[in-house]
Target: Metal-dependent phosphohydrolase, HD subdomain protein
Amino acid sequence: MNTIVFDQAQKRERTQLVLKRVTTLSPVPKILSEVLELLKDLNTSPQKLAKAIAKDQSIVVKILTIANSPFYGLAKRVSSIEYAIMILGFNEIRNIVMALSLMETMKNKSDEYMNQKDFWLHSYITATTAKKIADDMNIRESNDVFIGALLHDLGISVIHRYMHSDFVKIKESVEKGSKYSEAENQQLGMDHQMVGYSLLRNWNIPEHICDMVRYHHNPNQSTNTKILSSIIHLSDYMTQKLDIGKFDWDNDLELNPEAATILQFKDINEIEEFIESYREPISSQIDSLRNLL
Model:
């Protein structure tokens, strides 16, 4: 038993060393960087922001496609960036631009073990669904939920990119019957939740965002973000329950019963009705996004 514990401690230490070396990302495209800077300035006008975004028509198309997705439920089709900014507001535009930025900076080549398009589609759908749930539940921190959910599986992408041989061994263990969390812990001394959490802390990301990433499978263990982590957990579970998207990591994910209690669901029937009510808008949103990510 002591030998096993020591071996796991060594693997955990090795993983932490790798993560400490991951200090840089691919540069954010200049236009996205400029837009994010403008969004930080409270005095930025919608016209100035729209002018900056309009410099890159591919980004314009992506933002308009996202804005017109069923999740936003807009009565009138959004046909210009100015109108998108007016209707959605700066916070929502910031969320969209941040998502596009992260997709660019963490972009990695797909291979036989992981499809990057499927990974980011899952991340974005989980994020927009989590924000929608937070808004529907009148949770004030819905923008933070969006960011936490967008990053919730960051650890998986990091393992694939920087610890690829370990990633392959984890996949092989799962194919032989192991659960992902068991295979991750066995190979790395920690799971992808902790990998993402550790990396975000190394980057000095706000603690509550790190916390949501760390506990998105077991939100009941969180001290500071139980409700927010529970929303992300539910959103993540919903993509599996509704069989929406092709990302198969965590395909053995089960709903944490304590998370359901934290979100004040009365019973399993209420949860299933709630989840089913999101099927159509999530499916429609995926259809509108597939060609963008």
Remarks:
- The chain has 16 helices and no strands.
